[in-house]
Structure prediction request, 421 residues.
Amino acid sequence: MVDFLLNTVKPHFNFWVYVILMMIGLWSLIAKNNLIKKMMGLAIFQTAIILFYVSLGVKDGATIPVLESYGDYAEKAEKAEPAGPEVAPPDATPAPVVVNPADTYANPVPHVLMLTAIVVGVATLGVALALCEMIYKEFDTLEEDELLRKIKALHDDA
Amino acid sequence: MSPKIFASIAVVITGIVLLYGISDFPTFGDPRSPANSGVEGGAPSTSLYYINESYGVTKVPNLVTSVLADYRGYDTMFETVVVLAAGMAIFAILRSTTKDDETVAGPARKSSIDGDHNRIIVGMTCRLAVPVVQIFALYVVAHGHYSPGGGFQGGVMLGASFILIALAGNLDDALGRFSEKSYMALASLGIIIYAGFGVVPQVLGKNFLDFGVLQKILLTDGPEMARSHSMLGVEIGVALTVMSIMFAIFANLSSRGTLKGGL
Prediction:
């Protein structure tokens, strides 16, 4: 059990969380009878997708994708830097590992995609709520089986 | 078969398939994963280009802003249009101006921030909080180039400040400050600002949303600063639309389209 957790779950725990959230969302979308609960399931499902994307862009030891040194400041830092490491003491540890500057910032692309997805998700959730409100106004219920029964009764009358 | 059993079977099968696929994914936080640095032996990931080169081209340190508002300008513009369309859809579904709806929404409450003594603490706190929220929202919009933030986030915060007024007092208070006419006009104005930043380069003989050519109009040092300033303009347009539509959604949903009384 511990081996399974350490070797299988831990390196991919973000994906495990996303799959579990997605299963919760999918289950409530299919099994729940109430339209509001279905929409909650849809929102949980969407959260799972957002988590999946954002966690793909994570890099160990990286910071947010906002440059820390840029413009004049960066030029000054570059000029000042060579003075330091060149006069290393003789008993110095091996040369520091060269860090690719791209590895110090998280991947910005998933952030961009999810930023717009979140706002559009809120807007479409608003439309869904408006539809639910109209359904409730018309039929006095948001339970799916009752709705189907009432709609069927309407058709039988006509 | 009852729907719950069917749902459980479908969900468990989906979950098992997805979990089976997980073993092929890169480990969490791996900087060498295909998404972060490209496929081995293939082309490097686009994100490396954004991290290494985008500051030189756009002069915007926040990579998310530069990718969002410049490289993916079309995407962002039509996301904003989707937000406007959602506001229009809610208007079309819910908004009713007939008189007999008063029975559905209940009688309009007579409470306000000033009048109702049961709400004096909530009302006063809200009155103190709203300017702070709005100034911080403006900071988030204007400082989106240099720190996390931008039009969407600042717009949502501005919309939330009006929703706070509506929650603490009543909807009429909030609508008195931000009427239906003005939020619909501002929502459209935001799209017009965004599309305007796209059309002007076309008039100047370049592609839609090609901000670099705007240096002739914005009188900047070079195309890089023109892109930076255009992004700020675009973000302001996004913020206007998002603010208006967030408040429109709340106002219509909380009053069932009558825009009276509210919660």
